[in-house]
């Protein structure tokens, strides 16, 4: 639990800490943690975190005496304003690193899920781009990270387009080989429409039209 106006957690005041432990290993994005904040009339904050998969939970209570005075609040707000540009730069860099890390994870999943469906050239391009992203995130150049991320995204898109074209070509070949022969049903339908099978194509048939609304 933190209190303050800065973008980075380390620049704010820590009110309390608790750890939700004992959770089983799971793939990224699978665990679901429900966090509840409850503030009563006396300013006491109750925070509870619960893992929806295992039901394990942890909680902490922050009392009103843990808060800040008005002077401290004013000071922290002034500090936040004076460091706004610096904080934004740091926040953007962290978000970019997280985005790059997520892209590498997604590329690894793509290589695993597609298996031998992906051509060697596309697979090699993705693997090479992944290594460039990992090397870039080990450094401090945000522009280098962005360029590496763009290259990885481009390699993934190119590989995905190739896979979709292969699937579309396979589906089209299957449909053409299993389709019915045309023309036969239409001729049969026209022949069967004649009563008794005696009507011939182009034959004129005499008929009397009766208006049932008038007397004969």
What does this structure look like?
The chain has 216 residues and is mainly α. It folds into two domains: 2-82, Substrate Binding Domain Of DNAk, Chain A, domain 1 (Sandwich), CATH 2.60.34; 85-172, Substrate Binding Domain Of Dnak, Chain:A, Domain 2, CATH 1.20.1270.10. It is 50% helix and 11% strand. The chain contains five helices and five strands, in the order E-E-E-E-E-H-H-H-H-H. The protein has helices at residues 70-82, 84-114, 120-137, 142-178, 184-192; strands at 2-3, 13-14, 33-39, 45-51, 57-62. The strands form two sheets. It has a three-stranded antiparallel beta sheet, with no helix packed on it. A two-stranded antiparallel sheet has the order 1-2. A hairpin with a 5-residue loop joins strand 4 (45-51) and strand 5. It is elongated. The N and C termini lie far apart (99 Å). Mean pLDDT is 81; it is low at 186-194.
**Cα-atom Rg, whole angstroms?**
35 Å
List unreliable stretches of 5+ residues. Answer: 186-194
Number of domains in the coordinates?
Answer: 2
Summarize the amount of helix as a percent range: 40-55%
Q: What is the overall shape?
A: elongated
Order of helices and strands: EEEEEHHHHH
SS field, number of helical segments:
5
- Helix/strand-derived category reads mainly alpha
Euclidean distance between termini CA atoms: 99 Å
- Can you list the strand order of the major beta sheet? 3-4-5
Q: Mind telling me which CATH architecture of the largest domain this is? A: Up-down Bundle
By CATH reckoning, the class of the largest domain would read Mainly Alpha
Mean pLDDT: 81
Number of strands: 5
What is the percentage of strand-forming residues?
5-15%
**Biggest pleated sheet:** 3 strands, antiparallel
CATH topology of the largest domain: Substrate Binding Domain Of Dnak, Chain:A, Domain 2
